[in-house]
Amino acid sequence: MQLVIFELITPIFIMDSQEKALQQGTEELKQAEETVETTTQEELKATEETAVENDQAAVEPEQQIRKNYATKQEVLQRMKEIAQGSDTPAKTEVDLLKTVFYKLHFAEREAAQREYLEAGGDPDKYQVMPDEDEEAFKQEMSIIKEKRQKAFLEQEQEKQENLEKKLAIIEKIKAMATSPEEAGKSYSDFKALQQEWKEIKTVPADKANELWRNYQLYVEQFYDLLKLNIEAREYDFKKNLEIKTRLCEAAEKLADEPDVISAFHQLQELHQQYREAGPVAKDLREQVWARFKEASTVINKRHQQHFEQLRAKEEENLQRKTELCEKVEAIAAEEKKGSADWEKQTKQIIELQQEWKTIGFAPQKMNVKIFERFRAACDDFFSRKGEFFKDLKAKFAENAEKKRALVEQAQALKDSTEWKKTSDKLIALQKEWKTIGMVPKKLGDQLWNDFLGACNHFFEARNAANAGTRNEEKENLEKKRSIIAKLKELAEEKTEDIQEKVHELVEEYNKTGHVPFKEKDKLYKEYHEITDKLYKEFHISAARRRLDSFKSNLKSMAERGATALDSERSRLMRRYEQLRQEINTYENNLGFLNASSKKGNSLIDEMNRKVEKLKDDLKLTRDKIKAIDAENAAADKEETAE
C-alpha cells in the first residue's frame, strides 16, 4: 500500500520544492525510507497493548482509604466540606460516609430505646424522635447529588466536545496525508496538531479506541509522505526516546511508593503520557516498551494484591459478623424462666453488640444485609423482653396490693391479748404471705418490714406474758446447761474422737427447745464461748462450725414467727442459685482454657480452687436450707399437737 502511494505521488513531488532532495541518489532514498517508516505495525501494537492494560487496570474498583468516624457529627462535617467544596464529590467516599452515618444513627437510636426500656419505660409508648443530624445529612446528600449530576453532564459535554476537536484534527492530518504536495510545507502545522491532540483530554469511552487507531493511521500515512524530512524525524525519535525513558524511570520509582492506590493512579497518568508521546527509532521500540511494561506490571500486581487482601479481610469480617448473628439468635431463642435470665442474656447481647462495633466492613453487597440480620435479632430479643417486664410489672402491682392488705390485717391484730386465737390468725396470714409472688425489692422490703414488725410485736408480747408459766422452758434450760458442762469437760479431756462428740452435743443442744426469755442471752453467750474454743483448738471444719452456729440460731429466729424462717429460706435459695450459676460459669470457662503454658496452668489451678470453694459454700447453703425445713416441720408438728 505504501509503495503504491509512493509511486503515485512521485511525479507530484518532482514539481514540489522538495524535488532536489528526492534525486540525491538511490542510497540516500533507501536510507530515508528505512528511517521515516515511522508508525509501523509494531508501534501500533505497543500502543494497543498499553490501552488494553490500562483499561484492564481501570476495572479495579476505586476505593477510598477508609477513615474511622466516631460520631455522626464528624461524618456530617465531612459531608458539608464535600458539598461546599469546589471539587467533584467522589462516589466511593460519599457511599462510605452514608453507610457509616446510618450505622451510627441506628446504633444511637437502639441505645436510646434500650436505655428507655432498662429505665422501666413502656415499649408501646416509645417513640423514635426526629433527628436533626439526619435531616441535615439528607440536605447535604441532596446538594452532593446535584453537584455530581451537574459534573457528570459537564464531563459528558466536555468529552463530546473533545471528540469533535479530535475528529477535526484527524481530518486535518488526513488532508495533509493525502496531499503530497503540501506534506513538506506543513510539517510545523502537523506538529502543532499533535501538540493540540495531546492537550485534549478524555473522549467518550466507546469512541476512544477507534479514534486513536484513525489518528495513528493518518499520522503513519503523513510520515510516509515525509520521507525527505529525515533530520526532523530523527530529532523526533531522539526527543521521544528521552520522554519515554523518563516515563520508564518514573514508573520504576513507583515500586517504592508506600501508598498503593496513589501509585496506581500515578501509573495511569504515566500511561497516558506514554500513549501521547511519539514513536522512537524502530530498533528501540520493543526494548523501551518492554521496560515500561515491566515497571507497570509491578505496580499493577501490587494494586491487585492490595484489593485481594482488602477483599479477604472483608470476607473475614463477614464471617465474624455472621457468627455474632448466630450467637444473638441462639440467645434470643433460649428459654427464659425469670427476670434474672433476661438480665443475664441482655448483658450477653450488649457484649456482642460491643464486639460488633470493633469489626470492620463486610463486602459491599453483604454489608447492609448482615447488619439488618444482626439488628433484627437484637430487636426481636429486646421487644420480647419489653413484653415480659410489662407483664411482670403488672404482676408486681397485683402482689403489692395483696401484701398491703396482709400488712393492714397484721397491724390490726398486733395489740390483741387473745394469744391462741390471734396466733392462729397471724400464722395463717404468714402462710398466705408465702403464697404471694414477688414485688420490687425496695417496696417489698418496706412491706415485709411492716408485716414482720406487726407479727414480732404480738409474739414478743405473748412470749413475755407466758414466760413465767412454762415449766418446759425451765427443763430445757437445765438440759442446755448440762450440755454446756459436757462440752467444757471435752475441752479438758481432748479425746481422739472429740470432733464427733462435739458434733453430737451440738446437735442435741440445737434440738432442745426454748429456755426462759431472761436466760436466753446469757446461755447463748456461754454456749458460743465454749463451742468457739473447741472449734479453734481442735480445728473442726469451718463449714461444720458455721452450720452448727446457724442451727443454734434457728430457735431464736423461729421465735419471731414463721415468716422470719421463710424470709431466711428465700434468701438462702437465692444464694444457692447464684452459687450454682457461678460454678457452671467457671466450669464452662475452664473448658476454653489452654493449659499448654505456665501461665495457663496457673490460671487453671486458681479457677479450680475457686470452684472447690464455691462447691463447699453450695453444700453449706443446702444444709442450712434443710435445717430450716426441719425446724418448720417441727413447728408444724407442735401446732398440730396444740
- The backbone outline, from C-alpha atoms, is elongated
Give the rounded overall mean pLDDT.
75
The percent range for strand residues is under 5%
What can be said about the biggest beta sheet?
A: none
- What order do the helices and strands follow? HHHHHHHHHHHHHHHHHHHHHHH
Instruction: Please give the alpha-carbon distance between the first and last residues.
Output: 134 Å
Broad structural category: mainly alpha
Number of alpha- plus pi-helical segments: 23
Stretches with pLDDT under 50, minimum 5 residues: 1-65
Query: How many strand units?
Result: 0
Estimated helix fraction:
over 70%
Gyration radius, rounded: 48 Å
Structure write-up:
By secondary structure, this protein is mainly α. It has helices at residues 2-15, 19-22, 26-36, 41-58, 72-84, 91-118, 132-177, 180-183, 187-199, 205-225, 230-253, 260-276, 282-333, 339-357, 364-413, 419-435, 441-466, 471-493, 498-511, 517-538, 542-559, 562-592, 598-641. The longest helix is centred in the middle third of the chain and has 52 residues, at 282-333. Residues 1-65 have low confidence and may be disordered.
